[in-house]
């Protein structure tokens, strides 16, 4: 009877307070509260802090990775404020999706993963220099660039990966120019990203010109800038044994109409 009464009183607390309590628990224990009642069934999905430890899964084959995937994929939090994981130094592959990270954040992330071999950024933006100096990281995929135009007049970022062997740049980079600073060890490169013509930009285009004639001049200069970028790519990737280029070549060569 006492336990029943205590359970009822606990369930009557507001969500905000219950979530503060769940934040103090390891994520596995927080998720298991979903079995208590309908009141608790989906409460944990609003958590914005995660604490994972593989030690709780030592008897289960592949249980830990599956649980991490499950917890993150079911999260409804708009922003993760805390993320802890005890097996972090053993990670060999990491993929970031649809987020904005700064140069310092990427540096801290990579420095904490000494065993990392492959990194994949899917619609990740915000950074101005992607620098990977690890001897173990051999593959980098940059699948699109996440764009927040507000206050961003500088449409460029750099890639410096002196020990990387495979580099892939794909999907939409919008009007951002990606410069290759050091890719001297790359043997396999796939450059298939798309760009957006300056005339087709929905944001901030009016600042460039006040007349149709000026439109044409700016558009021509814009495409010429990407032609120069491609020429630089060919020079920087001259040691690669396999190169794949997409429609970017034809895009930058199109005559603006």
Automatic annotation (TrEMBL):
Residues 7-61 form the F-box domain. InterPro entries: F-box-like_dom_sf, F-box_dom, LRR_dom_sf, LRR_FXL15/At3g58940/PEG3-like. Gene3D superfamilies: Ribonuclease Inhibitor. It comes from the Eukaryota. This is F-box domain-containing protein. It comes from Solanum tuberosum (Potato).
């Amino acid at each position: 009877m006492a336990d029943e009464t205590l359970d009822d009183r606990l369930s009557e607390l507001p969500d905000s307070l219950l979530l503060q309590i769940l934040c103090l628990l390891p994520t596995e224990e927080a998720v298991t509260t979903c079995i208590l009642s309908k009141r608790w069934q989906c409460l944990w999905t609003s958590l914005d802090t995660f604490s994972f430890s593989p030690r709780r899964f030592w008897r289960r084959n592949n249980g830990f990775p599956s649980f991490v995937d499950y917890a993150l994929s079911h999260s409804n939090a708009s922003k993760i404020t805390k993320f802890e994981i005890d097996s972090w130094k053993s990670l060999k592959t990491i993929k970031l999706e649809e987020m904005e990270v700064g140069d310092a954040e990427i540096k801290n992330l990579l420095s904490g993963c000494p065993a990392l071999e492959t990194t994949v950024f899917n619609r990740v933006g915000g950074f101005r220099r992607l620098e990977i100096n690890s001897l173990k990281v051999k593959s980098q995929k940059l699948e699109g660039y996440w764009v927040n135009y507000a206050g961003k007049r500088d449409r460029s970022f750099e890639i410096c990966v002196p020990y990387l062997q495979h580099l892939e740049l794909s999907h939409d980079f919008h009007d951002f120019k990606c410069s290759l600073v050091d890719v001297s060890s790359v043997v396999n490169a796939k450059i298939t990203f798309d760009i957006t013509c300056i005339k087709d930009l929905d944001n901030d285009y009016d600042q460039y010109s006040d007349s149709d004639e000026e439109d044409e001049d700016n558009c021509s200069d814009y495409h010429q800038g990407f032609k120069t970028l491609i020429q630089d790519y060919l020079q920087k990737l001259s040691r690669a044994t396999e190169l794949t280029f997409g429609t970017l070549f034809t895009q930058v060569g199109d005559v603006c109409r």
